[in-house]
Design brief:
This protein is of the alpha+beta class and 96 residues long. The chain has helices spanning 2-9, 15-21, 24-27, 46-59, 62-76, 84-95, and strands spanning 11-14, 31-35, 38-43. Helix content is 62%, strand content 16%. Strand 2 (31-35) and strand 3 form a beta hairpin. The longest helix is centred in the C-terminal third of the chain and has 15 residues, at 62-76.
Amino acid sequence: MSIAVDLLKADRIGIRDLKEHLSTKLLDKLFVITDRGNPVSVNLPYSDVLELVDIIDELTDLETLKAVYEGREAIKAGEEGIPVSNLFDSIRFKRR
């Protein structure tokens, strides 16, 4: 979720400014590209893209979805829950 929060806080740069100041230093940052003030694109560092792909993979994995569902049902029944990050860590460990 940190990427979503970072995206909301990201610097914005207009298309014209981007064309004039494009450099490899700029490409290593997260920023929103605007056209007349309206967001039209996002520059994401490669590591952030990999993190998003990993999250999407986890959210489409049937084992993960089943574990999340079972956890929600257990919490409704009064059991104490665990953070989702712990769940993902344990699933990643099992896959190794």
